[in-house]
Automatic annotation (TrEMBL):
GO cellular component, one term: plasma membrane
Membrane protein topology class: Multi-pass membrane protein
Name of the protein: Olfactory receptor
TM helices/strands, residue ranges: 25-47, 59-78, 98-120, 140-158, 204-225, 237-260, 272-289
Gene3D superfamilies in the record: Rhodopsin 7-helix transmembrane proteins
Occurrences of domain G-protein coupled receptors family 1 profile (ranges): 41-287
Family matches, as PANTHER family: OLFACTORY RECEPTOR (PTHR48002)
Top-level taxon: Eukaryota
Function: Putative odorant or sperm cell receptor.
GO molecular function: G protein-coupled receptor activity; olfactory receptor activity
Family classification: Belongs to the G-protein coupled receptor 1 family.
Protein location: Cell membrane; Membrane
UniProtKB keywords: Cell membrane, Disulfide bond, G-protein coupled receptor, Membrane, Olfaction, Receptor, Sensory transduction, Transducer, Transmembrane, Transmembrane helix
Length: 312
C-alpha cells in the first residue's frame, strides 16, 4: 500500500443508506428487484435489436450501447450495496474503492457524450431524412462511439489523478453506499479544499457542456421543423420525447450534485441512488413504451419463440 499514495488506510467503511435494520431488509428486497429489472430490461433491448434486422439502424446501434453502459454503471455499485444491507460491517478495500470511482466516472462521462451522439443522430434523422443513412455511416457511428468512451476515459483519468498522491492515514468512513470521489477526498490527511473544488469543477463542467450541447441540438431541431405541417411537427416531437426524457433523468441528478455540490448528504444519497439505479431502470422502459418499432420487434420475437415451442 505504500506504493499507492503512502497510505496507512487499507480499506474504507461505507455507512450505506440507513442504520435501521428493518429499513435495510426492505432496501435489500426492493433494490434486488430493481437491479434484476435493470439487467433484464437492458438485456431485452440488446436481444431485440440484435435479432431483429429491421432495427439494425444507427439509432438502435447507439441505443444498445446506452443499454450496455446503463447495466455496467449499475453493476459497479448496486450488487455490493445489496450485499452490504445484510452485513454489519460494510467495508471496501482501497483498490476496490479506487476502481469503483474510476469506472463510475468512466461510464458516467461516456454516457453523457453518448447522449450527445444520440442527439446528433436525431438531428440528422429529422432534419436530413433523405441523407440519413449516408451521413450516419458505420464509420461515423464508430467515431461517435469511440469519442464518447475517449471523453469518459479522459474525464475519469483526470479525476483519479487527484487521488494518486493523497495520504489516507486517519478516518476512513464514507457517508454513502459507494465510494463517492468528493467524499473520499475529504478523508485525506491534508487540506483538500482546492482539490475538492477541482473535482467538482471537472465533473460539473462536463455535465454542463454536454447538457448545453443537447439543449442547442433540440433548439435547432425544433427551429428546423417549425414550418412543417402539424403532423410533421408532431412526429418530430414524438421522436424527440423519449430522448429528452432520458436526458432529463440522466442530467438532473448530476446538476444538483456537481453544480450545487454543498447540499446535504441525505439529498446527495437520494440523487446518487436515482442516478445509479433508477435511471438505468427507466431508460429501457421509456424507449420500449414510447417506441412502436421496438414493441413490434419484441412482439415478433415472442411470437417466433412461442411458435418454436409449439413445434417441438
Amino acid at each position: 500500500m505504500e506504493s499507492a499514495n503512502h497510505s496507512v488506510v487499507s480499506e474504507f467503511i461505507l455507512l450505506g443508506l440507513s442504520k435501521s435494520q428493518t429499513l435495510q431488509i426492505l432496501f435489500f428486497l426492493g433494490f434486488s428487484v430493481v437491479y434484476a429489472g435493470i439487467v433484464l430490461g437492458n438485456l431485452l433491448i440488446l436481444v431485440t435489436v440484435i435479432f431483429d434486422s429491421r432495427l439494425h439502424t444507427p439509432m438502435y446501434f447507439l441505443l444498445i450501447n446506452l443499454s450496455c453502459i446503463d447495466m455496467s454503471l449499475a453493476s459497479f455499485t448496486t450488487p455490493k450495496m445489496i450485499v452490504d444491507f445484510l452485513r454489519k460491517q460494510k467495508t471496501i478495500s482501497w483498490w476496490g474503492c479506487y476502481s469503483q470511482m474510476f469506472f463510475i466516472h468512466l461510464l458516467g462521462g461516456s454516457e453523457m457524450m453518448l447522449l450527445v451522439a444520440m442527439a446528433i443522430d436525431r438531428y440528422v434523422a429529422i432534419c436530413k431524412p433523405l441523407h440519413y443513412m449516408t451521413i450516419m455511416s458505420p464509420r461515423v457511428l464508430i467515431w461517435l462511439l469511440l469519442s464518447s468512451y475517449t471523453v469518459g476515459f479522459v474525464h475519469s483519468s483526470s479525476q483519479m489523478a487527484f487521488m494518486l498522491n493523497l495520504p489516507f492515514c486517519g478516518p476512513n468512513v464514507v457517508d454513502s453506499f459507494f465510494c463517492d470521489l468528493p467524499l473520499v477526498i475529504k478523508l485525506a490527511c491534508k487540506d483538500t479544499y482546492l482539490l475538492q473544488l477541482l473535482v467538482i469543477a471537472d465533473s460539473g463542467l462536463l455535465s454542463l457542456v454536454c447538457f448545453l450541447l443537447l439543449l442547442v441540438s433540440y433548439m435547432v431541431i425544433i427551429y428546423s421543423v417549425r414550418h412543417r405541417a402539424a403532423s410533421g411537427f408532431a412526429k418530430a416531437f414524438s421522436t424527440l420525447s423519449a430522448h429528452i426524457t432520458v436526458v432529463t433523468l440522466s442530467f438532473a441528478p448530476c446538476v444538483f450534485i456537481y453544480v450545487w455540490p454543498f447540499s446535504r448528504y441525505s439529498v446527495d444519497k437520494i440523487l446518487s441512488v436515482f442516478y445509479t439505479m433508477f435511471t438505468p431502470l427507466l431508460n429501457p422502459i421509456i424507449y420500449t413504451l414510447r417506441n412502436q418499432e421496438v414493441k413490434a420487434a419484441m412482439k415478433k420475437i415472442r411470437t417466433q419463440h412461442t411458435n418454436s415451442k409449439q413445434t417441438l
